[in-house]
Design a protein that fits this description.
Layout lengths: L1 H12 L9 H15 L10 H16 L6 H15 L5 E6 L5 H12 L5 E7 L2 H13 L6 E5 L11 E7 L8 H11 E12 L9 H11 L8 E2 L4 E2 L18 H11 L1 E8 L4 H4 L12 H19 L7 E7 L8 E2 L20
Length: 356
């Protein structure tokens, strides 16, 4: 099975890009828009066990660099830009902004701190989500700081330069990554930065064979009632290495994000984390765990420890990242948690790695 999965990946990677006018692309685009039309809380409904895990283990990784959560990460760097450029108006762009709740909340925090020298342009494919963003900005009284543009980021062309471009969990929906990264690079002013939080694992958010073997090892330890998939509404007594990109753009080129970022930009900050823990704490299976149960917390603790050990040894690679990048190297060098540099954390599709 591992050989077949690798062969399928190689075939997919040879698939010609772009095919942005093909019937397949247009159908995926339709499904994507339809899925998010009524999705008012894209980043909500995370299980309690996810919050237990992230607060205990991921928050300290972030706090080491001055922020406490992914949302706070974006706020931190945009605020720094406003303070650094206090004598000018700062233009920010959000790629794939969705409902624009992150952007509106950042604008509110900055405004409450007396910071007014900024504008955030929200770019998204979905008109319904942008309308929700407009409504939220008006409700929070920050409409003067937000602009809304409907467009497909696969074919986006910048008409101005930006002090920062942000992408919050949107890159793994992008088919034309090379085109997008070229355009972001072109749009950044000389001191501009690209700030992103995203998924960098295998396409479709699948597990690579070496990680899948460990997931299956722990899956066998779980009682059957923990194996109900709450998103797909089905029992999975045998773990299904599900390809989320089968119909839509979910994870369509996730495995290419990190290698291409290294090709197009210079990293200023890189935080890579989590692999085998993800299926157990995400929306599909995480709701089956009780965050108040000593036994459930102990299982997650042991799984996280194994995850960290395998990642540090290079046996498996992180599937999540927070990163700050620029067109030039950072004056003080890249910040990261050793040994997890972007290069160390890159999993090439054709590499042969140790299996558990």
């Amino acid at each position: 099975m591992a050989f077949l999965e690798l062969l399928i990946d190689k075939i997919w990677r040879k698939k010609p890009h772009p095919f942005s006018e093909s019937e397949e692309y247009l159908e995926r685009k339709r499904i994507e828009k339809e899925h998010y039309n009524d999705c008012a809380g894209v980043h909500e409904n995370l299980p309690d066990i996810f919050h237990y895990w992230s607060d205990r283990y991921i928050r300290p990784k972030l706090e080491a660099f001055g922020f406490s959560s992914p949302d706070d990460f974006f706020r931190y760097y945009l605020e720094q830009k406003c303070l650094e450029n206090s004598n000018k108006y700062n233009h920010f762009l959000s790629i794939g902004s969705g409902n624009c709740d992150l952007e509106s909340n950042i604008a509110l925090i900055l405004k409450n701190k007396g910071i007014q020298n900024f504008n955030i342009t929200c770019l998204d494919l979905n008109e319904a989500m942008l309308q929700r963003g407009k409504d939220l900005a008006a409700e929070q009284n920050v409409a003067e700081h937000l602009e809304f543009r409907q467009g497909d980021f696969n074919n986006w062309k910048s008409d101005m330069s930006y002090d920062a471009v942000i992408a919050n969990q949107s890159l793994h929906h992008v088919l034309e990554l090379e085109k997008l990264f070229k355009e972001i690079r072109r749009s950044l002013n000389p001191t501009g930065i690209f700030i992103t939080s995203d998924m960098i694992g295998r396409n479709g958010h699948m597990r690579w064979p070496e990680a899948l073997a460990i997931v299956e090892e722990y899956w066998q330890q779980l009682p059957s009632l923990y194996k109900y998939n709450n998103q797909l509404k089905r029992q999975e007594d045998v773990f299904d290495n599900w390809d989320c990109s089968f119909e839509s753009f979910e994870g369509i080129r996730a495995q290419d994000i990190l290698p291409l970022l290294q090709q197009y930009f210079h990293f200023h900050l890189f935080i890579g984390f989590a692999n085998i823990i993800s299926p157990f704490v995400d929306r599909s299976f995480g709701h089956n765990f009780n965050a108040n149960s000593d036994a459930d917390r102990s299982f997650i603790d042991k799984l996280h420890e194994r995850d960290e050990e395998e990642i540090r040894k290079g046996h498996i690679k992180p599937t999540h990242m927070l990163a700050v990048l620029g067109n030039s190297p950072a004056p003080d060098g890249i910040k990261y948690h050793p040994p997890l540099t972007p290069e160390f954390c890159t999993r090439h599709p054709d590499q042969i790695t140790r299996t558990a």
